[in-house]
Amino acid sequence: MADRFAGFRRLSLRSLVSRSPRSVAGQVFLLQVAVVVLLVAFSVFALVLQSGRDTNAEAKRRSIAVAETFAHSPGVQAALAAPDPSKILQPLTEAARKVAGVDFIVVMDTEGIRYTHPLPSRIGKRFVGTIEPSLAGKVYTESVNGPLGREVQATVPIKEDDGKVIGLVSAGLKVKNVTHQVARQLPIILGAGAGALVLATGGTALVGRRLRRQTHSLAPDEMTRMYDHHDTVLHSVREGVLIVADDGRLLLANDEARRLLELPPDVEGRPVAELPGLDPETVELLVSGREATDEVHFAGDRLLAVNQRPTDPDGGPKGAVVTLRDSTELQAVTGRAETARERLKLLYDAGLCIGTTLDVKDAAEQLAQVAVPRFADFVTVDLADAVLRGEEPAPTATGMRRSAVQGIRSDHPLYEKGRLIDFVPSTPQARSYGSGHSELVTDLAAADGWQKQDPVRAQKIIDYGIHTLIAAPIQARGVVLGMVNFWRCGDHEPFDEEELSLAEELVARAAVSIDNARRYTREHAMAITLQRSLLPRALPEQSALDIAYRYLPAQANVSGDWFDVIPLPGGRVALAVGDVVGHGLHAAATMGRLRTAVHNFSTLDLPPDELLSHLDDLVGRIDQDETGTESPENVVGATCLYAIYDPVTRRCVMARAGHLAPALVHPDGTVTFPDLPGGPPLGLGGMPFQTEELELADGTQLVLYTDGLIEDRRRDLDVGMELLREALAGHPERPPEESCREVLEALLPKRPKDDVALLIARTRGLSPDRIADWDVPADPAAVAGMREAVAEKIEEWGLAELAFSVELILSELITNAIRYASEPIHVRLIHDRTLTCEVSDGSSTSPHLRYAATTDEGGRGLFLVSQIAERWGTRYTPHGKVIWAEQALPKVLLDDAGPDAALPEEGASGPDGPA
C-alpha cells in the first residue's frame, strides 16, 4: 500500500511540475494551494485565541479549587496555631500539589509570610502577589512573575468559625504549562492542512491527466495550429483516407481517395453502398467495419491495397478509418522480390544441407535433392571417376561417373546412377568441363551438339518433354571435379541468364564440400593404407591355433587398434592385441612402432609380464621424446594384451596392460571372462604387471578384441560385454571365421565410430605321440644312451633323414648342460611343423656363440648347432633355462601333414579383404 501511494505521489508531482501555470490544471492547482494555506492559517489563529482563553479559565478554575480544598482541609487551622506551622504544612502541601497536578501550593499568614513553598528556600519570605482581597475574605486570581516564573495563581482565605481570616492559601500553574496544550493541538491542524493539500494535489493531477488525454497534451494555441494543418496534411498525403460512420455513411474522404475511387464532389455524408463505381467486395468491406490489412481490391483498372481499422478502440466514436494505396506497380516489383527471396532461400538451404558428411557421393546427392523441384525438374551430377577415389581428375570429360540422379519423376530417360560416361567434345558438358564456364541450352530440340552423345537417348529426352539444360562445372581451387546438369520439362519456362548465375552460385557452394570430401577420401585412404601396411598381411603358419580375425577401420578416421600372431619355439604361439589412444596418422604410426617392438621382444621369448614391462618403458620413452612438441596429440597412451599358448601343455599364460579381459568359449558352449589381473595402461610406469595361467581344453576359443567392439555412446560397457557373451555362447562347434562374422553383426552398427580389432583362436593341443622327453643324469657317459634313444624316436616318426643332425645337436647341448650347468637336466623332442630339440637345466647362465681358435680344445659346440639347426635360442624358466634348436621337416612330410597343419589364407581375411 505504501508503494502504491509513493507511486501515486511521484506521478502527481511529475504531472504538476510538467504543467505550465498558464494551463487550466496549473491555475486550478495554484488556487487550491492558496485556499488550503489560508484555511490552515485561520485555523491556527483561531486555535491560539480559543485555546488561550479556554486554558486560562481552566487554570484559574483548577487553582481556585485546589486552594479552597486545601484551605478547608481538616487540621490546617490547628497547624497554623502550632509553634512551627511549616514543619506540619510543608509535607501536606507538597503531597497535595502532586496529587492535584498544580505547580505550587503556598500557605502564608495574614502578613503574606510563607509557611510552605515547592522551593524550601522561599519559606519564610513574603508571598509575591496581591493578598488584600483575600484578607477581606474574597477569592482572588491573578498572573504574576513568581519564583517559578510566569504564574497563574488563586489566593483563598483560611477562616475560623467566626469568619476571622487567620491565614491564606495560594495555588497555581506556570504559564508555559498552560500554553503547552496549544502546542499539542497545533500538529493536528497542520497535518489536516497537509492532507488537504495532498488531496488537492491528487485531484489536480487526475484532472490534468484527463485534460491531457482529451487534448493530447496540446495547449490551446497548439490545438489551433493542429486543426489549421489538418486539412492541408489530409488532402496532400499520397494515400487515400476514408472515415466511415457506424451506420455506413462516408464522413470524410481526402483528395487521394477521391482520385483513386473516382468519387463525386458531394460524396461526404452519403451511404457507402450508394457511391458509384465501387467494387461490391470493396463496399462489403467498408460497410462491415472489420479489420483488414493490405487486402487487395480492384477499383477500375487499379489494384488497391486496403487497410481498415475501427475508430473506437479507446472509447471514441464508432466507425472505421480506411487507407488506400495504389499497388498496381508494386505488384510487379513484389513478384520480382519474391523470386529473389526464393533464390536466396535456395542458396541458404544449400549451404545448410550440402556437405554435412565428408563423403563425395553424399555431397552430390544432397546437391541434387536441394535443387529439385525448387530450381529444376531433374538434376544429374557427374563426377570424374578419379574424384570418387580421392584422386585428381582427368583434364577431359571422359571417365565421368554419374553419382546422383534426382527428379520429379522416376521414369525419365536420363542416364542411370552409377553409369560411366565419356562425353563427346560437342556436348555442353564437355565444353563446360574444358572451359570451366557454365553452358546454357534454352532449346534442346534445336541444338544438335548434345545429341551426338547418344542420338537415340537424346530423342527420348526430347519426346519426354525435357526442353532446357544448364551444364555447370563443379570447380574448386581451379580444378574441375565434375558436372551438374539442371533439366526442365513440361510447361516450365526455359532457363534464362539470371538462373544461369543462380546455378553457378549453387554449384560453387557444393564444389567446396565435394572437394573437401575428395581430399578427405584421399587422406583417409592413405591413412588406411598405412595402417593396413602396419598390420599383418597374412597369418603365420602354425598348428597350435585355428585363427580368424577381423579388422574394421573407423568411418571417420583411422585409429591405433592392432593385433598380431607370433609363432614361438616349441610349437607355442603368442597372441597380441592392442589399442593406441587417439586417431589419425600419428596413432597409426605409433601402433606400427609398438607392434614392431612386440615382435622384437617376443624373439627374446620373454614371459607376458616381462614383455609388457619392456613395452611400458618404450612407451614412456616415446612420451618423453614427444613432450617437447606443440601438439598434445603426440603424447602416446596405449593398452595391450599379450598371451602365449603352449599346445604341448595346453596351458595359456597371459597378461594385460589396461586392456579388456578376453572371452573364453569352452567346449560346452559356455562363455566366461577370466579374472585376469588388470595392469595400468602402457606409458604410466611404476606398477608391475601380473600374469595368469589357464589350462584350456582342446576346442576352447580364445577371443581377443579392442574396446571399439563393445563400447558405444548409446550403451554401457556391461551391456556390450553381455552382447558379446550372447553372440558367442551356445556354438562351440562354430568355426572361428563364422564366429567373427556373427560377433560383428550382433555388436557393431553400420558405421562404427572407432576401429575394431577382433581375433578368435581355437586351441588344438599337440598329440602326446608327437612328444618325447627324457631325464638325463649329470654323467658324460649318458650322452651315448641319449643319442640311441633319440635316434629310435626319430626313426619311429619317420624322420630318419634328420637323425644325424639331431644326434649331433643333442650331443652338444647335453654335453654343455652336463659340463657347465646344474641338474635337473631334461631333453624333449617336439614333432610339429618343425622338429624341435630342447635341453633344459637348472642354471640360468646362458651360453654364447663364439669363434674358437685353432688351439682351443672347446667352444665349437654352439657354432656347430647354429650351422646345422634352422633356428636356435635360449629361453628362461622359473627353474633355469631351456636351449632349443629347430630342424625343418622334409618337404614331403610337410605336404602330407594335412589341412590342419596350415592356416587357410582366405579364412583369415576380413570383410574388406586381407588386412
TrEMBL record:
Domain PPM-type phosphatase: 542-763
Subcellular localization, as worded in the UniProt entry: Cell membrane
Taxonomic superkingdom: Bacteria
One Pfam family linked to the record: SpoIIE
Signal peptide coordinates: none
Keywords: ATP-binding, Cell membrane, Hydrolase, Kinase, Membrane, Nucleotide-binding, Phosphoprotein, Transferase, Transmembrane, Transmembrane helix, Two-component regulatory system
Protein name: SpoIIE family protein phosphatase/ATP-binding protein
